[in-house]
Amino acid sequence: MIQPRSRPAARYGVAFAAALMALTGCSPGTSGARGISAAGASASVPSLDPPAWSTCGKNLECATIKVPQEYTEPDGAQIPLAVMRHRATDPDQRIGSLIFNPGGPGVPATETLRNLPKTAGTPGAFSPTVLARFDIIAMDPRGVGGSHAVRCLTDKQRADAAGTAFDPAVPGGKPLPRLLADAAVFTDGCVKHQSKKFLASLSTDNVARDIDQVRSALGEDKITYYGLSYGTVVGPMYATLFPHRVRQMVLDAPVDTNLWFGNSLPFQNDVAVASERTLNAWFETCRKEGVAVCPFGAGDPQEAFDTLIATLEAKPLKIAPAKGVTPGGELDGAMALEATRALAGDQNAWPLLTSALLAAQDGNGAPLHTLWSSVTVSPFPVPTAMFEAHTAVRCADWQTPAGVAAHKAAATKAVTEAKRIGTRAAYSALNCARWPAPNKDRVTKPLTGAGTPPALVVAGRLDPVTPHHWAENMTRTLDSAVLLTREGVGHGSYGTNSCIDSAVDTALIHGTLPADGTVCKTDTPATTRPLVAANR
């Protein structure tokens, strides 16, 4: 990570990168799906004692609670859940507890809460007004962070996978036989390090039941909920299973929950196309602003970018080590494409992207390489510990075709509809195609949240991970919801836009929602002007 970090770099490096993990993944082919009912899910589980809180930071308290691995077996195996609480800063005006999920799946909520003071101005950062009125509750979902994190690869296997060169011109980055072999190593490792019953329990419906156990332990009759990205799957699940326990719900950068629990291949295609659109938006803005503002490509940034990626892939740039910044190495085309994809997805990072591309074009790959190394999470497979949890949760929720033919067809479609990003998305569901722990009793009915107060659904017009039409579909699926749109490029809106912030704060605190279809403009127009003037 570049030090000191500019505001756009900080936005990208912390919350934006974590949010970008949000959505392309995989899931198992499962059978015996059940309908939605809270009865039999947690009604027979004994009430938990209040958490044994201990101080773990400024205004932070931590605790561990244990919940059933399977709620149909309340006296069976237990799972520890890491929980953190940020006490309301104005106790006299405290409303209650606000539980949030920052996305992923695989992003530890406790780590996100601990870092909130450092990430003001990033997606999901609560305002001082909300922090004053609520105890903010972070629960690492089962299989994530401090809640018995999923482990499938050894450190060496992870390092080897991270060091394997990808070819940006090849769907999936490698020949299909190698991708299938990688999937075998991954899934075999999951079974080696985890029990199949535990892996099968990592479904979103169980996460929702866990939240209700936390609510009960806190002594709250109802909770307020804020979810970002994958957190917008958790929220509607909770609202559908436990509608009488919801005080208010805000869903930011929403997922189409009907698509989430269906065939994962169309889901992944939507993400690839959404990411391609944000990259195209950077190209178009650079072209429109002209070479005096955006000199990259001398008026044709798309052609210059494609040439740069091909050149770097043919002859990678050597990167000298820099203490505290990068261990060095080399920058190839695949790495440059991955860093560009991530940065193009946040218009506040566009000047940083322009600067890095110009530097690489001039033979200095250090900026792009440093940015690439900070992309520790992604909507497409990246060999990190977080990705292991990310994959396992999806595989407990989704339905992924087992036959390779379906994945070949999906790869062809992705590359056709997303010229540059499609190759990165292709075959990214193979792990779940051969997932060894199918979840046979997952909830599958529409998540309507019937019986809860109207939800506020917040969507970005050009979101690189959760396209706007997913928000429209979620608003239709929920029994009662209002859609609020933010113009511009970025994943997650609350904490980044004054108009959105005001509407979300009002919804969370007072339960008052804006008119359906309200649109918020960007606070600052997007620009591709580089951070440092180019010597051209």
What does this structure look like?
- This protein has 536 residues and is an alpha/beta fold.
- Helix content is 41%, strand content 14%.
- The protein has a 10-stranded mixed β-sheet, with helices on both faces.
- β6, α8 (231-241) and β7 form a beta-alpha-beta unit.
- 56% of the residues are buried.
Task: Tell me, rounded to a whole number, the average pLDDT.
Answer: 88
Specify the oligomeric state: single chain
> Which strand-content bin applies to the residues?
5-15%
The value of Rg in angstroms is 22 Å
Profile the largest sheet: 10 strands, mixed
Helix and strand content put the structural class at alpha/beta
Summarize the structure.
Strands 1-2-3-5-4-6-7-10-11-12 form a ten-stranded mixed β-sheet, with helices on both faces. Strands 8-9 form a two-stranded antiparallel ribbon. The radius of gyration is 22 Å and the shape is globular.
